[in-house]
TrEMBL record:
Gene3D superfamilies: MFS general substrate transporter like domains. It comes from the Eukaryota. It is a multi-pass membrane protein. The chain crosses the membrane at residues 12-32, 83-103, 109-129, 141-165, 202-218, 341-362, 374-393, 405-424, 430-452, 464-482, 494-513. This is Oxalate/formate antiporter. GO terms for cellular component: membrane. Keywords: Membrane, Transmembrane, Transmembrane helix, Transport. The lineage of its organism: Eukaryota, Sar, Alveolata, Ciliophora, Intramacronucleata. It is found in: Membrane.
Length: 540
């Protein structure tokens, strides 16, 4: 039984949410970094520090960015979003399983950080893209629902990981320099549990990824479908024309050979016999070989129908009365070379600063005055804020302008950054601050798929959105560099103020710069020069 489109759309969103629960495992890194680092300090005795381990987070973000453009391209190549999700999902779970056998930290980074990141990047945009096709007027809700799973991943699997790896609730111990805490000494068993827990987690990932992929439904307008249908139509037309052309030549030659008995020739019912006789008679004195003359005649005779096949392709999307202002960017190259794309990347980098800092370091910040069990609770609330805030923020873009919504988010960021240091006196207050900062972080991450689709159109955005994640990775590396280079000099408190400056700069850009682009001038210039205007690449 064929399901209605709206049901397919809802199931696709559910499938995307389910898969993103696993793909969002990179947000767990702030939670599992102390466990992974402690394991490799024991597995391969070294001075590996938890701060060094923090570098894996930006590496994973860049890996996700690398894989992201591949997802929609794989749909175009294989014709099935579900198949692509099946293969990528199984591969992602396998990467987590294999990472448990890594003998050195650098091997773990390659398998878990790079390979897992690239593969989940391939999955990332597929359910969002398919959801946009089913609900073109509700892009904010689509993005928010799917990415809610991405944000909640650290809650679901963070608690699962903690319960499996540290069932007795053992605490970390200071290293020899009394600077960092690790699972060693009396709590060494926690570090030793890491490989087995990773294998269990890979099994859970596999189940959820396969279940989610099964709920991804194809859409008639998905990338590759139109091209495939058009190719089949043209192939069929070409075969028909070639057959008729060969028949005309054959019949004309038979007529000329049997001039005395033309009436005896059996002609196909679609062929105009009188017309062929008349044309054959005219050819007697032309001096060219009969076959060559008939080939010219056949080409001329069927030039009209062939043009009827191709003409719609030239005219499609080129209507004189079309409102070009409703179109997105004409192609990927134009999008990538536009100043607005560069500015939107800069906005992403600046606005993510405080969120990335706290997301990757809330345990290191809080371990001086809170125990590991309570910090796990803090991480759970952070994941809730990161996940559940996404559909709220992104759905606002369906009703309000990006400038209005994002400005409000930045003002909240600035307030939290200026006052965060005052949350240290109480664990509950610290939990609330971490929760609120993660709501702003989730908002930025949820709004950018919508913004990119609004600026450049759905199809083009699906091909360039991965570059935004390189921007996210750059923002993460900046925070990593600030922590490594300045923490000992100015502490985390000083870094908060630097990030506040970034947020203020971002707010100024948002208020003064016009990000929304009207691409109509581009199309009008094409029309003025007489260049055929192609079909809108973003139309669905």
């Amino acid at each position: 039984m064929d399901l209605p489109d709206n049901v397919k759309g809802f199931l696709t969103l559910l499938g995307g949410f389910t898969m993103h629960l696993c793909c969002g495992a990179l947000y767990m890194w702030g939670t599992i970094n102390p466990y992974i680092t402690s394991y490799f300090r024991w597995r391969e005795p070294s001075d590996l520090k938890v701060e060094t381990g923090a570098a894996v987070f930006p590496v994973m973000m860049c890996a996700v960015a690398t894989g992201m453009p591949m997802g929609v391209k794989l749909i175009k190549k294989f014709g099935s979003a579900r198949l692509v999700c099946y293969v990528c999902g199984a591969s992602a779970a396998f990467c987590v399983f294999i990472s448990s056998f890594a003998a050195a930290f650098w091997q773990f980074v390659i398998i878990y950080g790079l390979c897992f990141g690239i593969i989940t990047g391939c999955i990332y945009y597929i359910p969002i893209y398919m959801g946009y096709l089913y609900f073109p007027k509700k892009k904010g809700i689509v993005s928010g629902v799917v990415l809610c799973g991405y944000g909640l991943a650290s809650l679901v699997f963070g608690l699962t990981f903690f319960a499996l790896v540290n069932p007795e609730g053992l605490n970390q111990e200071y290293d020899a320099t009394h600077t960092y805490k690790y699972f060693q000494g009396k709590s060494l068993s926690v570090a030793q549990n890491v490989p087995g827990v990773l294998r269990q987690m890979s099994f859970y990932y596999l189940i959820l990824l396969m279940a989610g992929a099964s709920l991804i439904f194809p859409h008639k307008d998905q990338v590759g479908n139109k091209e495939k249908a058009l190719k089949e139509e043209l192939t069929e037309k070409a075969v028909t024309l070639e057959q008729k052309r060969e028949l005309k030549i054959k019949l004309a030659e038979e007529i000329l050979k049997e001039e005395d008995d033309v009436g005896k020739i059996e002609v196909h019912e679609d062929v105009d016999t009188d017309e062929i006789k008349e044309k054959a008679a005219q050819m007697q004195g032309n001096g060219l070989p009969i076959s060559q003359q008939m080939e010219q005649y056949s080409d001329a005779r069927y030039e009209g129908p062939q043009l009827q096949v191709n003409q719609p392709l030239l005219q499609k999307g080129a209507h004189d009365d079309e409102d070009f202002s409703k179109r997105g960017v004409p192609n990927v190259k134009t999008a990538l070379t536009s100043i607005r794309f560069c500015m939107s990347i800069l906005i992403a980098i600046l606005s993510l600063s405080i969120g990335l800092l706290v997301n990757g370091n809330y345990k290191n910040i809080g371990k001086e005055f809170l125990d590991d069990s309570f910090l796990t609770v803090v991480g759970s609330f952070a994941a809730v804020g990161n996940g559940l805030s996404r559909p709220i923020w992104s759905s606002m873009l369906d009703k309000f302008s990006f400038k209005t919504v994002f400005s409000f988010l930045l003002v909240l960021e600035i307030f939290l950054g200026l006052t965060f240091r005052y949350s240290y006196f109480n664990g509950v207050v610290y939990l609330i601050y971490v929760f609120l900062i993660h709501t702003t972080f989730g908002g930025v991450m949820a709004m950018f798929p919508v913004v990119s689709a609004q600026l450049f159109g759905v199809k083009v955005a699906s091909q360039i959105y991965g570059i935004y994640w390189y921007g996210f990775g750059i923002a993460n590396f900046i925070q990593f560099g600030l922590v490594i280079g300045l923490k000992k000099k100015i502490g985390y408190e000083g870094i908060y103020y630097i990030d506040v400056i970034f947020s203020v700069a971002c707010l100024i850009i948002i208020r003064l710069y016009k990000l929304k682009t009207d691409w109509s001038n581009y199309y009008l210039e094409m029309k003025r020069q007489g260049i055929p205007i192609p079909e809108d690449p973003n139309k669905h």
